[in-house]
Write the structure tokens for this entry.
Amino acid sequence: MSVQPFGQPRVCEHEPSASRSSRRRTVVARCVLVLTALCLAATAATAAEPPPGLSPAEREVFRRIKARIIREVTKELADDRMEGRGTLQPGGDKAAAWIADRMKTHGLAPGGEGGTYFQQVPLVASDYVEPTHVSIDGTPLTYGKDWSTFGSVADMQVSPPLVFAGHGMVSKKFGRDDLKDVDLKGKFVVTIEGRPADVSQEKWGEIAHDEDLLGTLSARGLAGLSIVTNGREAMPRSFILDQTARRRVSVPSAGAAAPVPLILFGTAATERLLGGPEAAKRALEEADAPGFTPRALSTKLDIQFALAKKEGTSPNVIGVIKGSDPVLAAEAVVFTAHYDGFGVIRNTIYNGAADNAIGVGEMLAVAEAFARAKVKPRRSLVFIAFTAEEYGLAGSKHYVSHPTWDLAKTAAVLNLDGIGTEIMGPMKSMVAYGAAFSSLGPMFFEVARAYGITPMDDPIPEQGVFQRSDHYSFVERGVPGLMLVGSPVDTPKAFSERFDEFERTKYHQPSDDVYRDWYWKGARKVADMMALVGHRVAQADTMPSFNAGTEYAGRVRGEAPKPAGSQ
């Protein structure tokens, strides 16, 4: 006896074809009904239950957030068709148009300029072209391996005199003057980035935060800064060289003075610049001593920079959900995630799935949940997908200088910027960068505890994560903010290990792609937390404020930060 294929009933040999067709349709319909019922039952059994203590409105928003939407958006934005969403590249414009169309389709009102979803950000892209080269004593160096540059660079051709200034520190507090009795005018100053041997990375971070090395050197008329390595930097020098040896995008600076070039050197180039392996070892050791004395170098450094430039605009994408309170609707909670990636570099696509297609997916899942909710929060909600985050937060800095929603009436900013941890497994903990600085902290802790998530202090303070994403542009303008990062581990050591793994293998690399083993429920929990914290901010009688005694206390919403040293 043969086994009948599923869904194909045995028919009588002489049964009319019309009857056979009708019977097939009936059986297929019954199978569909049975399968649908089974799927619905399975979905009901596995659907996430809202944490206790939520209001009815919060429970509704919670139930409307879907992992399916996060996965759908992430896979679309990280697809090769988007060409890595490069700023001032076709893929970036394509991604922005796709996000705007999705906002429109799901009921968000346009929040950009001129009744559109877009705020155009003026930018200029530049890249090195022939005959760019850097050589030491006639030996050419390889761009991205031996050297790279940091910040803006102008066309130039120089062979400057060199002064080795150790760590470049001038500080009475630490009893050092690495620039004592030395003339820097017209010279390239060679300094060490890595910490001294007897100073911890944490302490060195504090020193670097307090000391304005470039400002001190610029005041003495240097022509350029050459930064060498002693192997004790917070990030491996090979990683930094790779990251910075790429097309650069910046804000146009017409009429501005030519920037002081900052050139980064790798280990082999450091040895050449300091006179060879043994001479370099001695020089680096001498620089660690408090009594270090700067000195001239006899090495010949030849530099020629030639840049090709392209000016244009790239859009921030902005959608709005109006609040329900006749008074508080004039105020807004801002939700952000940057959509830009590195685009196409030397014919290779950098899809930027974890950084930051998934952040946009989570944010849009939140936006669509609020848009479908029957009862809207009291304050309005603004959702922004920023451009050019990877280039010094250029998109968000432009926004806070030209806000489409009054910053004085912006209650808070909640930001998502992926490092790939929330999709590594069931989420146990969450870091809310910025929680220590404002009244958003207790609000976050309350929601996290209700959700069964362990709040974690910054496990990698030496990385300065709080200052490295778009929420910080708002914080500088007096708007309290959080950046939420979820993780499947619950200890700082384990988090740091996951972060380091992602940084080594995928961060800003072509390998940052969507993988089959991604745990999308972890991403959904990040979206849940963003939505619930945002809802509570939107419902509160007063806007959040910075905590007294913190470095952000006294900031006024909408006002630019005062220059250092001003009253």
Summary: The longest strand covers residues 307-321. The domain at 130-305 is CATH 3.50.30.30 (Glucose Oxidase; domain 1).
